[in-house]
Amino acid sequence: MVLFLSKMEKVMFHLYLLPLLLLACFSPFYVHSMESGTSQCSNVSIPYPFGIVGGNPAPAQGFEIICALSGSGPIIRINNNIFGIINISLLDGFVSILASATSQQCKSNSSFSLEGTNFTFSDTKNKFTAVGCDMVAMLLDDSRGYIGGCASFCSTKSNIINGACSGVACCQAQVPKGLKKLELEFTSITGPGCGEAFIVEQNSYVFSRVDLNKTNTKNPQYRPVVLEWSIDGGYCEEAKRAASYTCKENSYCYNSSNGIGYRCNCTLGFQGNPYLQGPNGCQEWWHGSEAEDVWSGCTAADIQL
Ligand SMILES: *[C@@H]1O[C@H](CO)[C@@H](O)[C@H](O)[C@H]1NC(C)=O
Ligand SMILES: *[C@@H]1O[C@H](CO)[C@@H](O)[C@H](O)[C@H]1NC(C)=O
Ligand SMILES: *[C@@H]1O[C@H](CO)[C@@H](O)[C@H](O)[C@H]1NC(C)=O
Ligand SMILES: *[C@@H]1O[C@H](CO)[C@@H](O)[C@H](O)[C@H]1NC(C)=O
Ligand SMILES: *[C@@H]1O[C@H](CO)[C@@H](O)[C@H](O)[C@H]1NC(C)=O
Ligand SMILES: *[C@@H]1O[C@H](CO)[C@@H](O)[C@H](O)[C@H]1NC(C)=O
Ligand SMILES: *[C@@H]1O[C@H](CO)[C@@H](O)[C@H](O)[C@H]1NC(C)=O
């Protein structure tokens, strides 16, 4: 399993959580702006449909974030695991988390699942990466067919070069579109081995020979992983007919490119949060908050004229 907390740690986390939730409202790390529909936790902006539990507007279901008092930043619970959030992008539909989305050859049946959540692994921002010698690491889908993977060989130690993930001791492959689950099959080519495979933000992993010795470690490695989020409700055409349709005024709907659901964007010439109605929603740029700030900044001079 890629649970990054042991059972005991989880229990302890729950004991921690309640006071954290109560204190979140008074935390200096949690600045909520009712006007913008965007909260701030530590240095991370949290735009609606994401939101801090207990905040206003209330987060959409599945987009609830906890702002930890310690200043360690925002946390999201996905399928009963808790992850730190690095960054959320509203218009592109990405959320970067710190996770151990890994599977080790020497451990039986590990899995990392986003099933039943509003998230998929981004196929454009991550790479499937495997570290090990003389092995093949293949991703499986539910019908246990191969959907991606790569092979890595090591003939001599001197050929193993730090920084290069090119098929010698380390290999990388595209993440399949719509991937929700890390289910792997490892095959050793020469004798028993211990490889490791994981999903990681494409620019953040640099292979190091030392990592070959860490493929069987009990301590999970946390690495940035980019998830794509979307709103449930099918494709746009279907979603538009439902009462739950989420795209507000001056916005349009587009299909998520990575699986189920849709997202919204402001129509050309408008700016704001397409999931909100009113002044924080999509507004013509010259009526937007930036313009208003400019006006309020120059009223004194204007009045004298
Ligand atoms: C927040 O601060 C941390 C630590 O200084 C930094 O690594 C991270 O990139 C920052 N995140 C954002 C969204 O600015
Ligand atoms: C956060 O995401 C935005 C949009 O994708 C990007 O421009 C920005 O560089 C990211 N910041 C960090 C600290 O990752
Ligand atoms: C691992 O998965 C396979 C196939 O799903 C199953 O037959 C086997 O019993 C599982 N092993 C363990 C230890 O869970
Ligand atoms: C990996 O482990 C082997 C055997 O324990 C050791 O000889 C080797 O120096 C280690 N390599 C690195 C890069 O730490
Ligand atoms: C998030 O996913 C859950 C489970 O599928 C669903 O009930 C919920 O409506 C989704 N949230 C949004 C905003 O689409
Ligand atoms: C969304 O995807 C469906 C199915 O592929 C397609 O029929 C529809 O035209 C797409 N809608 C938009 C707005 O791209
Ligand atoms: C959203 O709209 C902006 C401005 O019209 C555009 O630059 C951007 O590419 C759009 N994003 C998506 C994901 O369609």
Would you write up a description of this structure?
By secondary structure, this protein is mainly beta. The protein has 3 domains: 7-91, no CATH class; 101-222, no CATH class; 232-286, Laminin. It has 4 helices and 23 strands. It has helices at residues 7-24, 236-240, 289-297, 299-304, and strands spanning 30-33, 38-41, 44-47, 51-52, 64-68, 73-78, 81-89, 94-99, 102-104, 112-113, 119-121, 126-131, 135-140, 146-152, 170-173, 181-182, 184-188, 196-201, 223-229, 251-255, 262-266, 270-271, 283-284. A 7-stranded mixed β-sheet has the order 4-5-6-7-8-19-11, with helices on one face. A hairpin with a 6-residue loop joins strand 20 and strand 21. The protein is elongated, with a radius of gyration of 23 Å. It starts with 6 loop residues before the first helix and ends with a helix. Residues 1-29 and 291-305 have low confidence and may be disordered. The structure holds 2-acetamido-2-deoxy-beta-D-glucopyranose (7 copies). The site of one 2-acetamido-2-deoxy-beta-D-glucopyranose has 5 residues, from helix 2 and strand 20. Residues 235-237, 254-255 line the site of one 2-acetamido-2-deoxy-beta-D-glucopyranose.
Chain-wise SSE layout:
Blueprint: H1 7-24, E1 30-33, E2 38-41, E3 44-47, E4 51-52, E5 64-68, E6 73-78, E7 81-89, E8 94-99, E9 102-104, E10 112-113, E11 119-121, E12 126-131, E13 135-140, E14 146-152, E15 170-173, E16 181-182, E17 184-188, E18 196-201, E19 223-229, H2 236-240, E20 251-255, E21 262-266, E22 270-271, E23 283-284, H3 289-297, H4 299-304
Parallel strand pairs: 4-5
Antiparallel strand pairs: 1-2, 2-3, 5-6, 6-7, 7-8, 8-19, 9-18, 10-16, 11-19, 12-15, 12-18, 13-14, 13-17, 20-21, 22-23
The structure holds 2-acetamido-2-deoxy-beta-D-glucopyranose (7 copies).
One 2-acetamido-2-deoxy-beta-D-glucopyranose binds next to strand 21.
